[in-house]
Specification:
It is a single chain. The chain is of the alpha/beta class. The protein has one domain: Alpha/Beta hydrolase fold, catalytic domain (Rossmann fold), CATH 3.40.50.1820. 36% of the residues lie in helices and 13% in strands. It has 9 helices and 7 strands. It has a 7-stranded mixed beta sheet with strand order 2-1-3-4-5-6-7. β3, α5 and β4 form a beta-alpha-beta unit. The termini are close together.
Length: 261
């Protein structure tokens, strides 16, 4: 069944309260990550291209430090966003992100940059990739509300309180959030996410970009950025040859942990 038939935008709802209250399991995911850290260094290595990691709403670079450390161990030039807490997205923040993308691109021999965004950071990553597709190699989002953040997220009221009601030009952008960037784009999500409803993380196939995919795995929202299952998927996606993209293989033993579409 096509992903688009699984999603009713009008009837979209945030996650069930049970999964929201179960978000404390992220602590165990972090502990699992730390325990398996030596083994995670054996994940597929890449070619050393630059990767920028964007934190989620209200989070800072501290939340992405474990992931960036692993990426460095796997040979990538991993970069934090360096902009404090992720609170808002406006013209100034967009300009800062584009400047960061251009700087990392130039500082790494003009190699195309991969973008990884956690939660709302994934929405930003996609938008920046749309603005400068010539600088972006791939985009990976983690539990990101890429379809309709206001309908699919339990954090929408907090975001609205911090940022206010969106202006007219922002509403137009929100309406087009589901359009993927031109670069290969992977949405990693969980049906047990307690903050962002999994339906909001599904991207549909797009005629302008056949290299889009969704990878479902078991994780919490606050733990998906350190979840070992997610680490494997990220390493697998980043290690692909620049000009030879192929969908994630969820066959074999992986079918017990992953579902790809």
């Amino acid at each position: 069944m096509a992903a688009s038939t699984l999603i009713d935008e009008e009837g979209a709802r945030p996650p069930h309260l049970f999964w929201t209250l179960a978000e404390g399991r992220a602590v165990f995911e972090l502990g699992w990550f730390m325990t398996l850290r030596p083994l995670l260094r054996r994940l597929p290595r890449g070619d050393g291209h630059p990767v920028i990691v964007l934190p989620g709403f209200l989070a800072s670079d501290g939340s992405t430090r474990p992931l960036r450390g692993l990426l460095k161990d796997l040979g990538y030039a991993a970069h934090a966003w360096g902009m404090g807490r992720n609170m808002h997205f406006n013209a100034d923040r967009e300009a800062e992100l584009l400047d960061l993308l251009e700087r990392v691109h130039a500082d790494n021999g003009d190699d195309p940059v991969s973008l990884i965004g956690w939660s709302l950071g994934g929405v930003f990553a996609r938008e920046i990739a749309k603005a400068r597709p010539d600088l972006v190699r791939s985009v990976i989002t983690l539990g990101s509300p890429i379809r309709s953040p206001r309908a699919h997220s339990n954090a929408r009221h907090v975001y609205d309180r911090v940022n206010g009601e969106p202006e007219l030009h922002e509403l137009e952008r929100i309406e087009n959030l589901s359009v993927p960037p031109l670069a290969p784009t992977t949405s990693i999500y969980s049906k047990t996410d307690g903050i962002v409803a999994w339906q909001g993380s599904i991207q549909d196939p797009h005629p302008d970009n056949p290299c889009t995919e969704n990878i479902e795995l078991p994780a919490s929202h606050f733990g998906i950025g350190v979840n070992p299952f997610a680490m494997y998927a990220i390493a697998d996606r980043l290690a692909q040859d620049h000009d030879e993209w192929s969908p994630f293989d969820s066959g074999g033993f992986k079918k017990f942990f992953y579902r790809a579409s």
